[in-house]
Design brief:
3 helices, mainly alpha, single chain
Length: about 80
Amino acid sequence: MREEDPNKTEMADMLGFAGLALAIAGFSDIDVESRLICLLGSGICLPISFKNQLNWPLWIRWLLSVATDLFLAFAAWSAILKS
């Protein structure tokens, strides 16, 4: 088992919270440009957060990263089509 760096875990948790906040903001009823910026920021923060969760198996981290990016890309595409 790998020895965990507490600073890296705290950074992963903070990126996770920031990504979640950006995703929630991206799904709110705001203008399209702001929505896309929030979804892009969330699409960057969440996969990095998942990658740095060292206690999780690699395949779960990879699967969550891909699923998150696909879902956020679909949300962004839907926002563009609705505008």
